[in-house]
Model the fold of this input.
Amino acid sequence: MSAPLIVLGAGPAGLAAAEAASASGQPVLLIDENSAPGGQIWRGGPQRWRDARAGRLWEALRARPHVTLLAGARVVAPAGPRALLLETVDGALTQPWEKVIVCSGARELLLPFPGWTLPGVTGAGGLQALIKGGMPVAGKRVVVAGTGPLLLAVAATVREYGGEVVALLEHRASGDLARFAARLALSHRGKLLQSLQLAARLRGVPYLRGAGLLAAEGGGRVERVLLRHQGRDKAIDCDFLACGFGLTPSLELAALFGCAVERGRVAVDGAQRSSVQGVWAAGESTGIGGVDKALAEGRIAGLDAAGAAPDASDLGARATAHAFGALLAQWFAPLPSLRTMCSGATIVCRCEDVVAADLESHTGWRSAKLQTRAGMGPCQGRVCGAACGFLYGWEAPGLRQPVFPASAATLALPQTQGVDTVARAHPVSAQQQAS
Done:
């Protein structure tokens, strides 16, 4: 049997890649750091999925004994020229590779403002993930703030699970939203319909457009949100504040392989091949575009890695998804006015408690790190790096290995102690029998 194709990430892109590649008999090893497949978009495992596309992909993979899932495993560093060092729930191990598809997804862009470090203040997608993971919000008052269509989806999730959305604060003005809707009506009617359906589920929720977030306040955790709307300052009492200002591609795994990055995303060709031989990339790591883009790119990458070619419908789906991603980037890129949320006393680097006043005199990461330790905490600049890029125009800090925090025991694993992860993982057909 040929060596398995390794797919890193079991979100929509990874599942689509694994399904497309395995259809021809190619053995596939699907690795994900979560305990169940689905990624951020389809969180919770197959028994909780409502998207029919997710169910179809999973059922196809379950029917193929040559597809293996290794869940709860995180890639932390190379283990030689063609092997990966993994940290799993059972300990450290190494995995040789010949072909890899990187489907590492994206993370939220978190922008600093006074009070953003208070317990109860989360990213918009972060709150949605917590709710889907079982965190109770029934009876809790929630403010959703920021910009973009994700705010509607998060607010709908809060309502679905019994939370009270006391306000939805959209930074973009009504005119911008109307023009965006008009563009959707011309070329992406399905997306417009989805937005209208979400809006209908939120009937009765105060939807404040052109609202500026000023601060979160509370004694020990968030208790109220201060905002400015139509020239007037207001305070809204709440138990949670979920902020969404967009997404940024997760580049750690691509950097581990040495893949070229352009404009903050993994550079790929028409077959989703990266600049490194034997490495493909798909999904949000190649640019933000949503689930349709992830599925289309994942399928094309999986086909190419297995030696097959996409058909016209695959290429058309990707082109449509790319066009929608470009539209999102055009209409919902964070406005420069959001920089005013961050005052001199606002913490920017949460790991090292570095405030904005300590950073403003520096011209880039090297100087800031040497003088303030910004970006040197456990997150290695993942949060404050993107924030400083927006606030000061700095390039993101370079990633150093291990690309994720790892235990000393994992890093001490001798390179000669390779472990057959396929033997230690489980066939997808044996996973999630309850689903």
